[in-house]
Records
---
Amino acid sequence: MLNAFLGILNSEGLIVPMTLAGLLKSTKTKPIIRTTAPGKYLHIGLEKQLKKLPPYALLGYDAIVLDIDVDGLPLYKSSSETLWPILGRVVNISKIDVILIGTYLGKKKPFNVDTYLHDLTIEIKELKEHGLILNSRELKVEIRAFICDTPARSFMCDIMGHNSLVGCSKCYQKAKRIHNVTTFSTTAARLRTDDEFRERRQPEFHKDFYRSSPSELEKIGIQMITQFPLVPMHLLDLGVTKRMLNILLNGISNYKISEENKSLLSTRLMSLGAYIPKDFQRKPRSFDDICRWKATEFRQFILYTGPVVLKNIIPVEVYNEFLLLFGYRLLSTPHNLDSNINNIELELKALKGLVTQQSNTIKTLKEDLSNRDEIIIKELASINIFVRDMASEKKENADILQIFPIKNIDELQRFEDNIPNLDEQALLNAIKKIIQRGGIAKNLHHLLGKDIFLNFNYDGVQTKQTFKQYININDILYKAVSEEVVTKENFIFEIKKGFKNAKNRVHKATCLARKQK
């Protein structure tokens, strides 16, 4: 009807648009869907979504602080199609809905995180530099954190997965394989820092392509350690709590409870339903349905109902172990967080006092056993010397690791000249550590940079420079792999194969970068 009215006005000689869309100066733009191997990506736009925020909600604020959430989820049970949405949540302003920034659809997750986040990183950089103009007001836009589960965090940060021997994203703890299970020690290790992440202090922690070059997130100033927090939902609610309950109820262990006790637990838990306030999203369900419990139900159990329900039914030592996990509640109440931390510190001081008391008791025993004590002190001194030597050796190995990868011909020549001055065994250990998985053919690109591969080959054919002329380098590489390749001929074959693999890797990365442009 409005379009017909505009037509009448035109017929009377008035210069007005022929349609309502023209009158409102609105245009329908077709969304741009780009290829992001192995699927498709649609970018809706962070700035576009922020401009839709209601103006009244932003009164009194000069900045918008966001959390970005990235995760994958299957669309159908009968299909391998996977959706990877990028969501945003305004954390400093209440009652604002989660916004959809972009989404990826494919049969597998995106192959390359930089391609996947290309549009988002460009927008974040622009918004951080120039802010957001909304209703004639300039608002700062800040990213507080990226919220991801463990596999998604590994993908976003381009680091090894949590099952890797260096899989901890927060500290330098190294795991061991025990009975085919990756096991981390409970001993505290040194925490990672954002600066050390950027400097690639632990090269094996990073995935191959990003061991020598930063990702797009790093280039726009995102802190890859502190801005990627651990998520309690996956680690504790759907992680430790769910695993512990499954061991108690359905596991094969000495602590599995009987069907009678399982029924009693369910009765106890469901009887609490009448006392659960509306603040909770769900009422307690029977343990028969535990395979269908949601994260909020596990969280409710560990933080509120669990200590009541389990008491006097499960073994005392298991119950006490559960109460250690219940301490998670102290850190889950933001309003009382400071006082809770103070309480924890007081408990630690009390524990320290107990340790001091025990130390005094040991001191008394020491006086009574002075002869034995001298022997112990000598043994400790020997151990201390051994540990100091080991620490010195580790530091030396770490220094040598910083040499690799050798990026250009100048560094290559310096390394050739310096090899006689280096500790040969430490150098061999460093090289073996770098190439231990897959051999030298697959890992030569961790020792040499792409400029070496583009300008050299082993024999110097096809106008390339000759790699075999570096006698010291070839000798040390041969010694490092002699146990595997045995003969010099096999070594030369592996080196040539390594050059070929590395060149293919460089060309593939170059083609991918061109496609992104």
Note: The first strand starts at residue 33 and ends at 36.
---
Amino acid sequence: MKYKIIQLSDNGNSNTEIARKLGLPRTTVVTILKDKARILEEVKSHAPMQAAYIRQRSGLIAETEKILKVWIDDQTRRRVPVSLAVIQATAKNVFEQLKERHGGGSHEETFQASKGWFYRFKSRFQLHNIKCEHGEAPSAEEEPVGDFPRKLAAMVKEGGYCARTVFNVDQTGLFWKKMPSRTYISKQENSTPGFKAAMDRLTVLLAANAAGDFRLKPLLVHHAETPRALQGYARSSLPAIWKSNPKALVTSTVFEEWFSVHFVPAVKEYCQANSLAFKVMLILDNAPSHSVSIEDFDPNIKVVFLPPNTTSLLQPMEQGVMSLFKAYYLRQTFAQAISAADKEDAPTLKEFWKSYNILDAVKNIATSWKEIKQSKLNGVWWNLCPEFVTDLHGLTDTVEDVTENVVRMAGQLQLEVTAEDVTQLLASHSQELSDEDLLQLEQQRLEEEEKTRTHDSPPRAALSTKVLSEAFKHFEAGMALLEENDPNFERSSTANEIIRSGYACYREIYREKKKAAVQTSLEMLFRVPAVASNTLPKNSPAESRPDNDSDEPGPSSLFLHLLLSSDRFQQRSPLVGNGGTWTPPKPGSPARGDTGHLRAHASPSPAPSPARRRALVTAAKGPVRLELRSRPR
């Protein structure tokens, strides 16, 4: 009975409800629950030594723990140290919010967030790597950098590395659909109940070498495996690597897969293309996803970890690359909105923003990453490896300059945005989620999964000859329109050449598809069942032509003319039969019967023998030209 009371309490029932269900005085229930710890200990002590005691958790405390786990993951992603006191305070705060939301009997449920609870919580969610500081975490300024750059320089020299073979990796959060807070779009979204699209976040991982001449494809991690905007697209064709997990974080599993499947092959190919020995150094910070075991994954890659609490001072990508990337992303998004507004049937800004989806974000992320100059990627190594830096001009590219551009572009969109608004938005990508945000994020993830299960996937995108032909017509029409109306002939001609060169790859795809279609038609036309022998009748191919119309069984016959020029045949091409052969004519012979023109009877019935039809096709070395002619009765 006591254990049942404890179970009902854990399931979220109030003391009064438990007393009513079991027919007990309320004071008895309260007394038993006060002695809960001792009762559970007795239950466990009477169990067999090897038995596992599993208690199903539910109610407000269980829900609190789920949300707290999301919060801890968010802190971990941003490398924010947490103390036991902070975790306890956050847990209590979340519990109280849930309590107010549920109301009713939940008001009688209590939660102390004790140390004992924390260690059980840590065990339940397998938070083995979490480190709780019992005080304030030291900042990079308080933690001396020391002589690590000198030690690293010695490792580089000893290992024979250079700027092209030393790499750095970093990651950042990105609210991919977030406007400055004072814009009317942001205000309208905040006033709408439910999940805010502005709180949907990606984790972006970027990697490049110290020379800045090689950057890897961005890695994106989202909570949805296949958002609707990406359905129908091959993952390999996206301009970024797409991964997913419920937390939208670069976990150790995701990072190790990226390292083995993407980083190692890409760097190896880069080294081979540039005649460099495949001997690489990868410098990492101490993010939880960067497991020490990564050092043993490949003997040709030396992994070096930065000292703790020095990321903001030493990590190259943190010296302006990540902040500039996020500024470029915002600018690219505004540029896309301006481009949409310039169209003839332009949507309103609100309509554009509503249609802006995760696929647009992926494209803009890739564009923004490419926009960062090589000199910038090289110059940010000044604090860690100054000997690698050959161009300091990249350091002049600042977020402030991009911010000014964004403010001007916002004016073109009739948005009141100041430099402070842009700075606040860029800083928000690194801010922690509020308790309310965490609740809504979990709800949105569940709704997205439900939509994926209940909705049919859109058809997979494909380039057909019809689509390509239609696109070519539009290209040609557009170029012709420019050429007719531009008084500067040289300018329009140059533009036309650039455009034609730009879509030459699609022309090649079109030719390949047409060629494949012709080949398929040939195979269908000459498809024959398997035969035991490849022999031909004694008569020659020319004799297969009927002498007059009376030999034809139907009202009309089709004569297949295989126009085979003699240079596409062997000097003497035997058509295997009962000793019969066919010899190509001499060059320049005008006689029709001597030019290699063969007409094979192709009427519905009777048809030429299968072996003969096969021989007519395979006798030629090169392609053949076919003509189908209808002959009336």
Note: Residues 2-133 form one domain.
